[in-house]
Amino acid sequence: MDIFFDVDQTILGQDGSLRPLVEDIFRRLVDDGHRIFVWSGVRTAEVVRTDVVERHGLAAYVTDCFRKPVFDYRQQWLRRGLGVQPDFCVDDYPEIVEAFGGVLVKPYLSARADADLERVYQAIRTANGGRGATAAATGPTA
Q1: What whole-number distance in Å separates Cα of residue 21 and Cα of residue 118?
Q2: Hey, what's the torsion of the CAs at 70, 91, 33, 16, to 10 degrees?
Q3: What is the pLDDT of residue 133?
Q4: What digits encode the pLDDT tens for the residues 4-38?
Q5: DSSP assignments along the chain, one per residue
Q6: What DSSP designation does 48 have?
Q7: What phi and psi values does residue 37 have, to the nearest 5 degrees?
Q8: C-alpha–C-alpha distance, residues 103 and 124, integer Å
Q9: Can you give the pLDDT at residue 142?
Q10: CB 65 within 8 A of CB 45
Q11: Is the pLDDT score of 137 beyond 60?
Q12: Confidence of residue 71 (pLDDT cuts 50, 70, 90)
């Protein structure tokens, strides 16, 4: 699946801290055969790439970065013609999750203990039939 993670208050706190488990969950999802995309409604794709993905050592897991639509979400995304569609979104903004599907997370504001991304990982596995992307694409083995 193509999984889109929001930046602000989803993987990054207002204090600039990376939410606990982000790198671990990204690694596990990539190991399961998924593609990770990171987007933001307030940052350009280049700023997301340099100030978030690269700065926090996530580049090995992230396929690409984008500017997230801020209204008329699905239609604005389709108009961009980028060739990739979100299969599953992880966001603290309910309207994005409603528009694209996925899971709503509790806003992450600052460095603190937080295990909400473990719940996200389990939701992605459930949405994918309890399997990694490779297993889902090839089907069950005999």
Answers
A1: 7
A2: 100
A3: 58
A4: 999 999 999 999 999 999 999 999 999 999 999 99
A5: -EEEEE-BTTTB-TTSPBPTTHHHHHHHHHHTT-EEEEEESSS-HHHIIIIIIITTT-TTTEEEEEEPPSSSHHHHHHHH--S---SEEEES-HHHHHHH-EEE-----SS----HHHHHHHHHHHHTTTS-HHHHHH----
A6: I
A7: -125, 145
A8: 8
A9: 30
A10: yes
A11: no
A12: very high
**Tokens 């690269």 appear where?**
54
pTM, rounded to two decimals: 0.90
CA 136/CA 128 separation, integer angstroms: 7
In this predicted structure, what is the pLDDT of residue 131? 66
Residue type (1 letter), 68: K
Q: Quick one: tokens of 120?
A: 């996200």
H helix or E strand, kind and range, residue 89: strand 88-91
Instruction: Check residue 130 and give its pLDDT.
Output: 77
What six digits make up the tokens of 114?
């937080």
Consecutive H or E run containing 66: strand 62-67
